Amino acid sequence: MKPRERAPYSAIVDRSKLTLPHGLRLILWPVVNLEVWEIEKPMARQILPAPTGVPLLPDVPNWSWHEYGMRVGVWRFFDVFDKYKAEVTLALNANVVEVYPRVAAAARGRNWEFMGHSYVQGPIHQLDDQRATIHRSLDTIAGFTGKRPVGWLGPGLTQTYDTPDLLAEAGVKYIGDWVYDDEPTVIATKHGPLTTLPYTVELNDIPIMVVQHHHADIFLKRACDQFDRLYREGAERAKILCFAIHPYISGVPHRIKYLEAFLEYASGHSGVAFWSGEHILDWYSKTVTGR
């Protein structure tokens, strides 16, 4: 099925208003992305283009750029989210638990939600067996955490037409790849409904910093502007603000203070809470279906 067959058009003004419990009006959904970049392959991103204009293997400079996040940047993330006792969703390549067990154990110890993000970093379209990779990813995470993930985010938000069917078949309950709404929605699959949560490419440090090359402080301005509008609208209907960060980008010394400043700004408002994707899913399911 193509996307419009799975999700017929729906105007937000035509839907019943969603309400949050306990007087909440805005949910912050932090998503931390952890990846495994294999030195044998072209890197997922490049901060330093190849001198010849053609990717060279092994690409040690760009591999090292990412590796900094797992050695240093992610520990800044742990510190800042600990301060606010935030629920966090961890979108991780399942191989992280084997290549970086120290990092994965630190996230598990904080009860961060583990969300499937394929096995290693690379487009879904390039997989020889998508179904096998999905199951391998979920099984690997379940073996490490003792709990099978209910959420999924494709690397680079990549999907084929069959991906939602394969994810639902594997037991996934929500995905973040469909960034088309402010609210959760339900899409059709061959194996029953699949919920989409409002992930983001606009408050994502890859587009902002690596693709658009903005100054570091633009993340703070954009995040606060997004917050202000959704907080105002949240007085009338529930709102969700997702922001997505990577430790090799937002975890570096010249950017981390802007993440800290945003969390301080947002947490200073009443009616705001940090929820994981699974928490959002549980609330939405009970609100919409009563289950």
How do the strands and helices of this protein lay out in sequence?
Elements (H helix, E strand, L loop, with lengths): L2 H4 L19 E9 L25 H24 L5 E4 L3 H4 L1 H9 L3 E4 L13 H16 L5 E2 L10 H7 L4 E2 L9 E3 L6 E3 L8 H7 L5 H17 L5 E7 L10 H12 L4 E3 L2 H13 L2
Parallel strand pairs: 1-2, 1-8, 1-9, 2-3, 4-5, 5-7
Antiparallel strand pairs: 6-7
Helix pairs in contact: 2-9, 8-9
- What is the tally of beta strands? 9
> How many separate domains make up the residues?
1
Percentage of β-strand residues:
5-15%
What's the overall average pLDDT, rounded?
96
CATH topology: TIM Barrel
Low-confidence stretches: none
User: Over all CA atoms, what is the radius of gyration?
Assistant: 19 Å
Characterise the protein shown here.
The protein has 291 residues and is α/β, with parallel strands linked by helices. Helix content is 39%, strand content 13%. The strands form two sheets. Strands 1, 2, 3, 8 and 9 form a five-stranded parallel beta sheet that branches. The protein has a four-stranded mixed beta sheet with strand order 4-5-7-6. It is globular, with a radius of gyration of 19 Å.
